[in-house]
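Journal club side-thread
Mid-discussion, someone asked how the predicted structure for our own chain would compare to the paper's figures. Pasting it here so we can look after the session.
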Amino acid sequence: MAPSRCSKCLSEKLSWAKASGKGRVASFTVVHRPPSKAFEKIPYILALVDLEEGPRLMAHVEAAPKELKIGMSVKVRFVPGPDGRKQPAFEAA
């Protein structure tokens, strides 16, 4: 569910905006024990990515754990999720 207020100013006046899909890794963790069978491929990386436009997004990063670094440039691509709907994932830019 999308937030109903801006996380910075608490305004209810929200709108959609296009984003470049480019960002930098702010933080990440390597998951070795999946929370459910929907996440069979382990290990996988879950990261906080700061988009160039300002928002921060939590998403999967498709990279080898040893290759990922905080501050690394990444770009979005959309992949099918466990339920078949497309979801954002990032890869090295």
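Post-session note: The CA atoms of residues 20 and 37 lie 32 Å apart.
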